[in-house]
Amino acid sequence: MVLPSTKKAYAYTVLSASWNGTFATYSKNANLGSLYSIAVDDAANDWSNSSSPFDFVADSASANNIRFDARSELGYTTVTYTPSTRTINSFIISMDNIPPFPWWIGGAMPMNYYDFRTAVRHELGHALGLGHTDTSNRLMSTTLPPNTARSVDADAINGSRFMYDSSYTGSPPERSYYGLTLPPYSGPGTYDDQSTAISYGGWAPNWLTFNPAANAGFSTISRTGTIGSRAHIALGPSTVNKITLFYSTGPDRRNANVYIDQVNVGSINAQTPEYRRQVGKTWAMTSAASHSFEVRFGPNAGLFDVDMFAVNIATVGSGTYNNTDAQLRYFGTWVPTTGISGAYNADHTISNTAGSLFRFAFDGDQITYYYTTAYNRGKAAITIDGVDKGYIDMYTLLTYRQQSTTFGNLGPGTHILNVNVTGQKNLLSLGTYVDVDVLNVP
Ligand SMILES: [Zn+2]
């Protein structure tokens, strides 16, 4: 009797981009020093001497460079490719040169050291077009434990043959959610963290799904506590001019760096005194060409989550937007209420459920938020573009309609206002209600 096997025949993924040819040159940065430089050659020769059809050839003039860089992961490979043909043009391999990742290149390996040649073999696998496999104990596995050496193994060779050997008839690549596979381009629209448009990776990635996550977009988030974990979306091919990242802030949330086309375009500080869902920040693209967008958790220990990616998010410009306007997006428990004497349009929308929120995407340098203050009002937490703007305490002994707070000097472009019901209140207040009457963009 033959039992069905759950073991994958071939454990490899591909970047969906490959070289035009069966070899690549590489140069070694002087910062490797002589011993590490020799170890790099060893790893490259391990590929060339294997049955992989793809070879690496040392060439001190090559633009494909291998070097030490300060990173928070063992190694990182940047591959550039032509989107229309998905032809790889160049690569940079950065091996970490900062603690806590001590390298081993010879002699007895001390505890908790990492085999440098194995790590370079792995990165060279990326350089020739391989992604990660979530099958363990492979050269291209997502993680490399300390004190572990791996050769250019059969799975890596099969992946290489799939790309570079036309006579290859073995299994095609597996699809790996945790792969480094470059997903198809994503054009305008909204992509949940669970979308296949998002790929998750990084050194020892540890992205956990939370479903349901109250008041999150599509009711899910993906959360990591592992520094260097990455979430990536490929934008394009030609109609993307901005991307908005939605994430949660909270007391245990920390920071992340954001990269567009591998260039750091800023950092996010997601720490706030209480949890706030669907905090958003938008980055504009300087050209209409395709782009990669990546969020990388770190450098401070804690947690970070991604909730949604909105490509070319719909915005409104200057105008007056009643609480019933479709541009105000409500999450949690909110009650639209009419017959409110003194309120704009005699209505407002109100909540006293902690964690409920509304958000509003607009273009303009300034926004004014109108609300009611009264004996039963609590505190609203305001976040704009991921920046904590503090609280509005809506308590007053008497009732006052159309009170307002203005947030200005936001700069040109798209902004995301997030108003969160905190459940907190002034000691004198008899409730924690927060309402929205109207928003005005001048
Ligand atoms: Zn890798």
Q: Can you give a write-up of this model?
A:
- The protein is built from three helices and 31 strands.
- A hairpin with a 2-residue loop joins strand 26 and strand 27 (387-393).
- It has three domains: 23-164, Collagenase (Catalytic Domain) (3-Layer(aba) Sandwich); 189-311, Jelly Rolls (Sandwich); 319-441, Jelly Rolls (Sandwich), CATH 2.60.120.
- It has helices at 33-48, 116-128, 154-164; strands spanning 23-28, 55-58, 65-69, 75-82, 87-96, 103-104, 114-115, 189-192, 198-201, 207-210, 221-224, 230-235, 242-249, 255-260, 263-269, 276-284, 291-297, 304-306, 308-311, 319-322, 329-331, 335-338, 347-351, 357-363, 367-373, 379-384, 387-393, 400-407, 414-421, 434-436, 438-441.
- Helix 1 packs across helix 2 (116-128).
- The protein has 442 residues and is mainly beta.
- Residues 122, 126, 132, 180 line the site of zinc ion.
Q: Report the helical percentage.
A: under 10%
Average of the residue pLDDT scores: 90
Unreliable sequence segments: 1-8, 175-181
Total helices: the number is 3
The CATH architecture of the largest domain can be given as: 3-Layer(aba) Sandwich
**Which ions, cofactors or small ligands are bound in this entry?**
zinc ion
Give the percentage of residues in beta strands: 35-45%
Structural class: mainly beta
Look at the structure and give the CATH class of the largest domain: Alpha Beta
| Overall morphology | elongated
* Oligomeric state of the chains present here: single chain
Name of the CATH superfamily of the largest domain? Collagenase (Catalytic Domain)
* Number of separate domains: 3
Query: If you consult CATH, what is the topology of the largest domain?
Result: Collagenase (Catalytic Domain)
Compute the gyration radius: what is it?
26 Å
- Terminal CA distance reads 76 Å
